[in-house]
Amino acid sequence: MKKILTLMLALALVLSLSAPALATEKPVINLWTTGSQNVADLFNALIAEYNALPEAKTEVKLQFLLSGTGDETMLSRISSAYLSGQKDTEFDMIAENTASLQPFIDESGTEDIFLTLDFDQIPNYKDITLKPSMLQDKVVPYRGTTVVFAYDSARVSEDELPHTWEELTQWIKDHPGRFAYNEPSTGGAGSAFVRTAVYRFIPDKSSYTSVDPIWAQQWDEGFAWLAEVHPFLYQSGGSVIYVAKNQGTLDLLINQEVDIIPAWADQVLANIAQGTLPETTRMYQLDDAALTGTDVSMAILSIGKAQDAAYDFMNYVISPAGQKIALENMKAIPVIDPSRIDSAEKDLVADLKVENFAFMSIGNLGDVFNERWNEEIMTLK
Amino acid sequence: MTAATLKREDKQKQWKKRALLALFLGPALILSLSIIVYPIINTVIRSFTDPQTGAFSLMHYAYLFTNRIAVADIWYTLWITVVTVVLSVFIAYLLALYLRFSNSRIAKFIGTMYLLPRFIPGLVAVYAMKVVISDSGLINRLSLLLPETAALFNLKPGLLYNPRGIILMNLWFNIPFATMIIVAALSGISDSIIESARDVGAGRARIFIRMIVPLSIRDVMIAMTFIFMSNISSFTTPYLIGENFPQMLGVFLRKQFSNRAYERAAAISVLIFLFSSVSAIVYIYTNLKEKEWEKG
């Protein structure tokens, strides 16, 4: 009796050990990404659906680094792996704002850190309406996102709404304490606002996508404008405050402490869906210079071990099924024609046409920009 | 049994003892070497490195002591920390005296409740505080219930995003901790000693200054060093309810880190470490010093 029991136990052990081995016949690829929790939620949903598909060619694993908890090290780790000539690493795929891929090229010194894609292996790519803002042969955009001005139409009437930067300046001065942007280094909404505010003064629009330090000489007018509106921004305890993080300014809008803020469109939509922002919340752009948006892309790293398998997942993410998850889970702006997505929520993003996005990519110049903001604007009293 | 075998057994015993000691201390030693000592050495080296050339350089320390933002941040951090230490120990001492020498029901109730904040996760506490003290928070909403003519109508506490808010939050965290240590010290003073002093005619003030203070000062110092060390490097509180400028060193460090100025961040770490070690020296010194009482 005892012997039989032992035998059965041993058998069970062997089976349990071999079961996962059978299941992982498909190559495993690691998808690296950073962001707020909503990014992790999105990929967890996408990956769960994809891995469950019988025809899926690979098993995807998410490697997520939360913003502000060492996500900066991802760049160093991947580029140093490339520079030290490593092959077949765990760095298979990456999903980031397309502009954020530039530092990888800067650090490694070559675009070869990303695989040049074979688009024949991504049949859904032909349906994409949002073409990448850069690195066209290396990346596949999977969602769009843009910073917009958000306000509550119940509190700011249509006729007093500013439509140009000049009108905005006047509005801010007429309504002291009712406009806020978050500290630029803590979130993209504030960053897009200050950069657009400064770069709109530069006549040559190629500056928007240039990493050349020469443009820094033309920032003065913009920084003077930021200093000019500074005293009229949100205050607490008697001094002007730039709250931390994108959610910081959203909280101010939610609590009705301010009336207009720059914010990410998807975060505004998510807050409306949760009921934290009222249904009357509206989003819009100024006519003379729109706040910048970005395409968010997937790229395959040339140092990964399962490069071919990654194509199949990419193809899934930009399929109508994958885009439906992105739209419903994150309120992401689709990269394909919304009419092809079977979802009641597609009207939400109907106005946010990806074709109209203003792109900006200034690479390491962004660090110089933030440093100057810290020196000149943050220290104002 | 000969003397030789005895000696050998002795040696064996000693060897076993040593092996056991190594077994017990080994993991802690390896762990502290690899996750404390090695990173410290690494950080110190890095803080003296020029990020471009990799050569020895004092540039990061020069920056820390000359850049106006960095200098302001250092003073701001020291100022907030010292105010936090002094205020929390002062309030905790009064509370501890009350808890030790009062037998009332309220004292007993407070005695069981005062440790509660120590069981609430820091992040939760900071957000809870924000909900109460922000300009659109609980205090403000309660004040909106008052008639519009009242002086306190639409009261905006103005405590968020400035040093007052940080210090308030720090007190919330540190008073229970300091009280815990001081209460323990005061409990060590037996009633009989105080009664006998009173018998020979010592007044309340005299008992307090000549007996209670000397008997508890050592633990007060220990509480102060601990509060100093935990607040000089604090991050969560100043990050969430601090202002943009000046900032506490923890937030300043994180900002350097996110701008990928790792060497400069290392120099700030070393500076925080130095401040903490001053406090650690005070701690060790007070611990080594004999208790006044025991000198006899």
Any overview of this molecule?
- The complex is a heterodimer of chains A (381) and B (296).
- By secondary structure, chain A is an alpha/beta fold.
- Chain A is built from 12 helices and 10 strands.
- Helix content of chain A is 38%, strand content 15%.
- Chain A starts with a helix and ends with a helix.
- With 296 residues, chain B is mainly alpha-helical.
- Chain B has a single domain (34-114, 163-295), classed as Orthogonal Bundle (MetI-like fold).
- In chain B, helix 2 packs across helix 12.
- Classes of the chains: A alpha/beta (381), B mainly alpha (296).
- At the A-B interface, helix 3 and helix 12 of A face helix 11 of B.
The percent range for strand residues of chain A is: 15-25%
CATH-level-2 architecture of the largest domain in chain A: 3-Layer(aba) Sandwich
What is the CATH homology-level superfamily of chain B? MetI-like
* DSSP strand content of chain B: under 5%
Q: Structural class from helices and strands of chain A?
A: alpha/beta
Mind telling me which CATH architecture of chain B this is? Orthogonal Bundle
Low-confidence stretches of chain B are: none
Summarize the structure.
Chain A has 381 residues and is α/β, with parallel strands linked by helices. Chain A has twelve helices and ten strands. In chain A, helix 2 (37-52) links the parallel strand 1 (28-35) and strand 2.
Task: Explain the layout of strands and helices.
The complex is a heterodimer of chains A (381) and B (296).
Chain A: H1 2-23, E1 28-35, H2 37-52, E2 59-66, H3 72-83, E3 93-97, H4 102-108, E4 139-152, H5 165-174, H6 188-199, H7 220-229, E5 235-236, E6 239-240, H8 246-254, E7 260-264, H9 265-274, E8 281-284, E9 292-300, H10 307-317, H11 320-330, E10 358-359, H12 365-378
Parallel strand pairs in A: 1-2, 1-3, 9-10
Antiparallel strand pairs in A: 3-9, 4-7, 4-8, 4-9, 5-6
Helix pairs in contact in A: 2-11, 3-4, 6-7
Chain B: H1 3-47, H2 59-66, H3 68-101, H4 105-113, H5 122-133, H6 138-143, H7 163-187, H8 191-199, H9 204-232, H10 236-241, H11 249-258, H12 262-288, H13 292-295
Helix pairs in contact in B: 1-12, 2-3, 2-12, 3-7, 3-9, 7-9, 9-12, 11-12
